[in-house]
Amino acid sequence: MPEENIDEIIQEILSEEKKVEEGAEEEIIPTEELYECPVCHHQVSESADFCPYCYAVFDEKVDYKMLLETLIKKLKFIIPLAKDMGIPLDAVNQHIKEAKKYAARQDYPSGYAHLHDAYFYLIKEVVDRYRGDLEKYEIMMGVNADLRDIYARASGYLEEWDIENFLKEFEELKSRAEEISKDLRQYLEKLEGVENAIRIARKFGIETEKVENVVDTAKDIADNKKYGDAIKVLDEALTPIKDEIEEVMASFLALVKEEVMRSTYSGKSNAKNIIRLVREMKVYRDEGNLVKVLEKMEEINKEMSK
Q1: Are residues 252 and 207 in the same domain?
Q2: Per-residue buried b or exposed e for 35-61, using 16+ beta carbons within 10 Å of the residue's own CB
Q3: 215 in the same domain as 107
Q4: Where is the domain boundary, 156, 177, 198?
Q5: Are 193 and 291 in contact (CB under 8 A)?
Q6: Tell me, what's the pLDDT at 272?
């Protein structure tokens, strides 16, 4: 298609913009007035007969029997949680006992009043405890975007006193945070080991620039909170100098052999310790764990200098 035809078509499309704007009808969405519940201070609908959060009654014509049954279900769920938290339940049990008496006489408003007092006390206590538990994870919010999303959802459910959905999100948050925390700890341990190995390698005259470059790469990856990937990089950090380590180790073991022989003939007691360390070093070498190989070389060197 010729270029001028494309320009013409674009212009024709753009010329329709005004017609589209004039023809569009603005959708009007009615908004419902909200006001603060005088009991729990949540925002509730102006037309509500009762508060959907704390179940305080706003209209005496409300179905008290329905509210009574709802509160019974809520208390059955929340009482075991409160018990595990060590929240005192004496007053709650007394309210439930009184509520049963009124319910048996079909005096549902009076039965509701007792259960409402029990529930309001417990939900506030449980929410406060869980809020404290949730805040412990705030420090990890900068680690992972998924954690922030889960935290936000859990926090939202808690503010709404929706304990069932809060617990689902909170368990997911704890699980994900534990995984990240585990990876972080492993990364820091691995980094410490590699950096220590670099220090030892330098003492034995091994050039470590290539390894340092790998470590820098791992740190950049870790800065983006990808600890698992950083660990994989660190696992191979000493590979670029593997041959150099092998050469130095061969020369070093020749000296170790001489020292063991001298120690044996001179009656020095460290020969057994040196042999034990050499055996351990061999295991790590067979495993390909160069970090541990260097650590054992340093231990052997210290033992020989005694």
Answers
A1: yes
A2: eebeebebebeeebebbebbbbbbeee
A3: no
A4: 177
A5: yes
A6: 82
**Same domain assignment for residues 171 and 199:** no
User: In this structure, are 265 and 202 located in the same domain?
Assistant: yes
For residues 187 and 298, state if they share a domain: yes
Residue 1, pLDDT score = 44
Looking at the fold, whether 284 and 196 belong to one and the same domain comes out as yes
Neighbours of 15 (CB within 10 A): 9
Residue in the structure block whose two tokens are 């170790």: 256
Say how many domains are in the chain: 3
Q: Which two tokens stand for residue 203?
A: 């003492």
95-154 pLDDT per residue, tens: 999 999 999 999 999 999 999 999 999 999 999 999 999 988 886 776 667 788 999 999
Contact partners, residue 77, CB within 8 Å, separation at least 6: 163, 164
Torsion of CA 252, 254, 256, 257, to 10 degrees: 170
Asked if residue 14 belongs to a domain, the reply is no
Ranges of residues in the chain whose predicted pLDDT is under 70: 1-32, 139, 142-144, 264-269
pLDDT of amino acid 226: 86
Number of neighbours of residue 225 by Cβ within 10 angstroms? 17
The domain of 41 spans: 33-60
